[in-house]
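Protocol check, entry for the methods section draft. Step 1: assemble the input record (protein sequence plus ligand SMILES). Step 2: submit for complex structure prediction. Step 3: store the structure tokens unaltered in the notebook. Ligand used here: magnesium ion. Step 1 record:
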Amino acid sequence: MFESRAGETGPSGRPLLHVDADCFFAAVALRGRPDLARRPVAVVNHMFVASANYPARRRGVRGGTTVAEAVHACPGLVLLDVPHAEVEEVSDALFGVFHRFAAAVEPGSVEEAFLDVRAGDWGEAARTAQTLRAQVLLELGVTVSVGVGRTKLMAKLASRAAKPDGLHLIEPHHEAELRAGLPISRVWGIGPKTLTRLANLDVHRLADLDRVPREAVQRLCGTTMARRLTQIRNGTDDAVVRPVQHRESLSAEVSTEGYARPDHTPAAMARLCTERVLRRAEKAGLSGTGILLTLQPRDGGRPERRRQSGTPGDGWVHTASALLEREPVPPLAGLRVTLTGLAPAGQEPETLF
Ligand SMILES: [Mg+2]
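Step 3, stored output:
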């Protein structure tokens, strides 16, 4: 979770980068296991596939499916636990690299971001992207793909086309043709409901919008979505990289249902995660004003959240265990600790009220 601030950059026609790590969780898990690199590997969280490497993907393994489905699709699939602590560290380091290369970084997730590298032209953007890719591999041992485009949508489409371990540019003179033929389903942020409504208007590609009155789209999809579609069709869609000053929260997570890991007690998991999250906050020069425990029950039920606010300097490890003692804890598949209300250490957090 990040906080957006003033000082955002664009739209200026400057090429923007979308940087996205390739099968991130699996790549982190495989860093120390070159023996497995060519074998199909999936990393698993709470009995679901969190990420699969490319050999596994080629054999039909997809993120979000159950372990049973994945093994059915790909007998011989190697299963590893999500290495949560390493994922958190590599993600922090990845954003460290992003900030060294870019004047503005807008995070999309733990492993992807839009970057404004202030490239003067497309050649410079491509060179910077390649240097960044080499640097990430050298420092962190994982690959990232980079898309370069004039708007965020173009940069994101380009990074998808670049995968895995590649660079792809969508230069402005290719945009018009690409936009016209673009299937609506590939436009980022268009949900299944909107897709169905547009299909009812016989709109499947962006250019199909040209023969439908704007009012019809508005009536079916709402004003905001209609405006957004028009902007995407016309090329006036979002080209602003909104930088963040600092994170609003930091999380650390651990699972009990490991393939190689012994079970932890809830108290031990809470301590482990709290210590990890505090270490990362300290490294980033941040302190929190609240703690949130998310308990993932083993029976697959809804996660339970317990929170407590306090002041920086509170003993968060103690607070975390007190939260566990407040009520009985069900058998757990995993536990996450989130430090919330982050602000630069030694500074009072800003409040709206
Ligand atoms: Mg990714």
